[in-house]
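Our preliminary data section would be incomplete without showing what the modeling component actually yields. Below, a chain of 118 amino acids is followed by its predicted structure, encoded as tokens that our downstream tools consume directly.
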Amino acid sequence: MALESLTQAVLKFRDERNWAQFHSLRNLIVSLNLEAAELLELTQWKNDEEMSALAGDSRTHEALRDECADVLLYLLLIADKAGIDLEIAARRKLEKNAAKYPVEKAYGSSRKYTRLED
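Predicted structure:
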């Protein structure tokens, strides 16, 4: 489903419940962060091996999928409220990142762009 179509579906869901009144930009950003924290909570006390095994455990995988969806849905609402075209914004950000992290300097490195010369 394309982002615009998904955005329209979430707006319809919201409007059918008269929830737009609660969706100030601030409230949406707070809610996004709360959902991101729930996503993060799935990693609590797990090592990398346990995290890699999440895909094989149907219950945990479902929780991971649901939290990812919650984050995406709030992000779509934020972008709609702020008048941001997420596809254009993502493409522009990729261009900026490509300039900050040229392949010849960043390949195989986890360093921040300000430290690539070190």
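The domain at 3-84 is CATH 1.10.287.1080 (Helix Hairpins). The CA atoms of residues 15 and 21 lie 9 Å apart. Preliminary results of this kind motivate Aim 1 of the renewal.
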